[in-house]
Design goal:
The two termini are about 40 Å apart. The protein contains 22 helices and no strands. Helix content is about 70%, strand content about 0%. Helix 1 packs parallel to helix 5 and helix 19 (about 395-400) runs antiparallel to helix 20.
Length: about 450
C-alpha cells in the first residue's frame, strides 16, 4: 500500500512541477516577445551546442528556457505513465536532474540518443526497461555531447551560432555516439557505486565523468582538434531584467517548495510526525520514501529547498557574481534532487559551510598578498558546485559535521577544474567533482580513522 501511495505521490509531484514550468514560461513570455518569441527562442536552444555552462536564458530567453524544461519534464512524466512504470524515489531524483539541466545543456532534441541507448541495453539484456527509466533519464546528461557532434563538430570553424547546420555525418555521429554511450552507462553506474561506496548521491556524476573523459579525449585530443566553448548570444532584454528575474525565480521556488511543504504537512495528518526521525538518518544508502513515505519526504523537500534557496540568495546578496541565470535556477533544482533518497538540512549544512570556509580563506590570503580575489561564492561554477556537493551528505551524516565541512572544502577546491577533463560535454560535472571528493575523503577517513563511526566525532 505504501509503495502504491509513493508511486502516486511521485507522479503527481512530477506532473505538478512540469505544469508549473510551462505556466511560468507562458507568464514570462507576456513580459518579453510573446508566444512567437518563445518558440523562436526555443528553436535557438534546440540548434545550439550546449557545453557547460551554456545559459539557456541567454541563448533563447527566459520563457523559452522554462518552456524547454517544461516540455522535457512533461515528456519524461508521460513516458513513465504510458509505460506503467513504478515511480520510485530514484526516478524522482533523475527527473529532478532532468528539470535542472534543461536550463543549461539539455533540450528536447539532444536528450534522446543516449536515452534510447539505455533502453536498448536493457532490451538486449532481456530486462524490463521500465524498471530502469531513471537510468535512461540520467543518461540525458550527455545531451551537450550529442548536440556538439550533431551541429558543430563536423564543420568546425564553419559553424555559425544561431543557424541550424545539420550534416549527414553529424546525424550519424550523434546517433552512433549517443546510442553507444547509452549502452555503456548502466555498467559504469555500478562501477562508480563500488568506488565511492555510496557516499556520493550523485552517482551518475562520477560514472559519466569517466565516460565523458574518454569520449572528449578521443574526439578532440586524439584527433588533434580544438574544442569550442559554450554558445553565447547577445540578449539585451535578458541583460536588463536582473531585478525582475530575481523576483520571478524566488516566487517560483517559494511556490514549489511552499506547496510541497504544505501538501506534505496536510497529507501527514497535519503534523511533522516522522520528520525528526528522518533528520537523524545518515543518508548513506537511504531511501526516505520507502521508510517514511512521500508525505514526510514532501516536508523534507520543502524545508530543505527553502534552505538551499536562502543560501543562494545570501551569496548573491553579499558577493559579486552571477544572479538567477539559467544554470543558477538549474542548480537549485539539482540540489534538491535527492530529498527523498538521502539529503536533508542536517546532513547538508556543513557542506555549504565548507564552501564558505574555503571562500573566506582564499579571500584572506588574497587580501594579505594584495591580489584580486579569483572567485566568490556566487561565481557560477561554485554555485553549481555546491549544489552537487550536497550529494556528499552521507559523509556528513555518517562521520559528523566536521567531515562535512572538510568534504565541502575539497569539493570547492576542485569543482571548477574537472570540466576540462570531459570538455564540458557531460552536465553532471558537480557530481563528478563530488565523486572524486568522496574517493579522497572516504579513503582518508577509513584509513586514518578506522574507528570513527559515531557522528559528531
Amino acid at each position: 500500500m505504501e509503495m502504491n501511495a509513493n508511486d502516486k505521490a511521485i507522479k503527481q509531484m512530477c506532473l505538478g512541477i512540469a505544469l508549473v514550468l510551462l505556466v511560468a514560461a507562458a507568464i514570462f513570455s507576456l513580459k518579453s516577445d510573446g508566444l512567437e518569441g518563445l518558440f523562436q527562442g526555443w528553436f535557438k536552444i534546440l540548434i545550439s551546442p550546449s557545453p557547460l555552462m551554456t545559459d539557456y536564458f541567454r541563448v533563447g530567453g527566459v520563457s523559452s528556457a522554462f518552456f524547454n524544461a517544461g516540455i522535457c519534464s512533461l515528456t519524461c512524466w508521460l513516458i513513465v505513465v504510458l509505460t506503467k512504470a513504478r515511480a520510485t524515489a530514484s526516478m524522482l531524483a533523475s527527473y529532478m536532474l532532468v528539470v535542472a539541466h534543461c536550463f543549461y545543456g539539455m533540450n528536447f532534441l539532444n536528450i534522446w540518443p543516449c536515452f534510447i541507448g539505455v533502453i536498448l541495453y536493457y532490451v538486449h539484456k532481456k530486462k524490463n526497461f521500465r524498471d530502469h527509466l531513471h537510468i535512461a533519464m540520467l543518461s540525458m546528461a550527455f545531451g551537450p555531447l550529442v548536440g556538439e557532434v550533431l551541429f558543430r563538430y563536423p564543420i568546425g570553424s564553419g559553424f555559425v551560432v544561431g543557424q541550424a547546420q545539420i550534416t549527414p555525418i553529424g546525424v550519424i555521429l550523434a546517433a552512433v555516439i549517443g546510442l553507444a554511450a547509452g549502452m555503456v552507462l548502466p555498467g559504469m553506474l555500478e562501477g562508480a557505486m563500488w568506488m565511492h561506496k555510496g557516499y556520493n548521491l550523485y552517482n551518475g556524476g562520477l560514472a559519466f565523468g569517466l565516460v565523458g573523459c574518454f569520449l572528449y579525449a578521443f574526439l578532440y585530443k586524439t584527433m588533434g582538434l580544438e574544442s569550442s566553448g559554450p554558445v553565447a548570444l547577445d540578449n539585451s532584454f535578458y541583460d536588463g531584467i536582473g531585478e525582475i528575474n530575481w523576483r520571478f525565480a524566488n516566487i517560483l521556488f517559494i511556490l514549489i517548495f511552499g506547496t510541497a511543504l504544505i501538501a506534505g504537512f496536510i497529507k501527514n495528518g497535519k503534523s511533522l510526525k516522522g520528520y525528526k526521525e528522518l533528520l537523524e538518518e545518515t543518508g548513506h544508502l537511504s531511501n526516505f520514501a520507502d521508510k517514511y513515505g512521500m508525505d514526510v519526504c514532501l516536508i523534507n523537500f520543502g524545508l530543505y529547498g527553502f534552505m538551499v534557496l536562502i543560501y543562494m540568495n545570501l551569496v548573491m546578496l553579499f558577493t559579486d557574481g552571477v544572479a538567477f541565470s539559467g544554470p543558477t535556477v538549474g542548480a537549485i533544482f539539482a540540489a534538491t534532487a535527492f530529498a527523498a533518497v538521502g539529503q536533508h538540512p542536517k546532513n547538508t549544512w556543513s557542506i555549504f559551510a565548507g564552501y564558505v570556509a574555503l571562500s573566506l580563506f582564499v579571500m584572506s590570503i588574497c587580501m594579505l598578498q594584495g591580489r584580486a580575489i579569483p572567485w566568490t561564492l556566487s561565481t557560477q561554477g561554485y554555485i553549481n558546485g555546491v549544489a552537487f556537493a550536497t550529494g556528499l551528505a552521507p559523509i556528513a551524516g555518517r562521520y559528523g559535521w566536521r567531515s562535512g565541512v572538510a568534504s565541502g572544502i575539497v569539493s570547492a577546491a576542485i569543482c571548477t577544474s574537472t570540466a576540462s577533463i570531459h570538455g564540458g560535454f557531460m552536465l553532471f560535472n558537480g557530481g563528478f567533482s563530488a565523486g572524486i571528493t568522496a574517493l579522497i575523503v572516504i579513503s582518508v577517513l577509513e584509513h586514518h580513522f578506522p574507528h570513527m563511526k559515531v557522528r559528531g566525532i
